[in-house]
C-alpha cells in the first residue's frame, strides 16, 4: 500500500471514529428520541386497546362497522398495490434502460404526489367527479358513482402511492446498467424472456421493498381518502377514518382496537422492510464489488 493510500485511509478512519463518550451520547440521544416519540405511543395504543380486557377488544373488532372498514382498507390496498407494481416496474424500466423524449417530465410526474398534499389530491377528484365537477353531470346521468364510493377511495389511494415502487426501482436499475440485457438480446432472447430471466431476478428485492412501502401507505392513508369517502359509516370508512370517528365519539377502546391493527400491520411491514433492505444492500454490495473487480480489466 502506498503512503498516499495509507494517509487517505487514516483520514477516513479519523473522520468516522469518535471518542467512546461521544458515541455513547449520540446513541443515547437517538434511543431516547425513539423511546419518547415512537415506542411509547406505540405501546400506549396496545395498552389502551386492551384496557377493558380481551373480550372488549375483540368485540370492538367484530363490530360490523369495524369489519366493513377493515374490508374496505384491504380492498383499496389490494387494488392499488398491484396496479402501482405494474406502473412502477414499467416506468422504472423505461427510465433506467431507455432514452426518450419526455423522460425528465415522466420523472417529475412520478414525484408529484410527494409535492402535493393528500387533501389537495382528494379535492382534485372532487372537482373532476363531484356533482358540480367536470364529469359530474355525465356520471350522474349514467348512474356511475365515483365519489363517496369504493372507486373514489381506490383512485385517491392510487394517487398517493404510485411513486413508491418506481422510486425504489429507478436508482437500482440505473446502477445495474444495461449490459446484461444487451448480452441476453444478442444471444437471441426476446424482450419478455430478457425481462423475466435477467432484469427481474436483479430487482426482486427492490420490488418487494417498494411494494411494502406502497402497501403501508395505502392502508394508512387518511387525507385524500377522507375527502372522497363521504364518511359513510359501514360503507366508505377505511380503518384510519373509522379510528377518527370512534375517537371523536369517545369510544376509546374501540378506536384503539382498530388502531392496534394498523400498528400491528406497521410492525409486520417494518420487519419485512428490514429484511428486504438487508437483501437489497447485499445485492448492491455484490454489484459494486463485481464492478470494481472488472474495472482494472476493462482499463
Layout of strands and helices, then pairs:
Elements: H1 3-16, H2 20-49, H3 54-61, H4 64-97, H5 103-110, H6 112-115, H7 118-129, H8 136-141, H9 150-161, H10 163-176, H11 179-186, H12 191-220, H13 223-229, H14 239-248, H15 252-298
Description:
The protein has helices at residues 3-16, 20-49, 54-61, 64-97, 103-110, 112-115, 118-129, 136-141, 150-161, 163-176, 179-186, 191-220, 223-229, 239-248, 252-298. The protein has 299 residues and is mainly α. Helix 4 (64-97) packs across helix 14 (239-248). It starts with a helix and ends with a helix. 28% of the residues are buried.
Rg of Cα set: 24 Å
Low-pLDDT residue spans: none
Number of helices: 15
The amount of helix comes to over 70%
Beta content comes to: under 5%
Average per-residue pLDDT, rounded, comes to 84
Q: Secondary-structure element order, as H and E? A: HHHHHHHHHHHHHHH
Rounded to the nearest angstrom, the distance between the terminal CA atoms is 20 Å
Derived from helix and strand composition plus strand pairing, the structural class reads mainly alpha
Number of strands: 0
Largest sheet, in brief, is:
none
**Principal-axes shape call:** globular
Nutshell version of this structure?
This protein is mainly α. It has helices at residues 3-16, 20-49, 54-61, 64-97, 103-110, 112-115, 118-129, 136-141, 150-161, 163-176, 179-186, 191-220, 223-229, 239-248, 252-298.
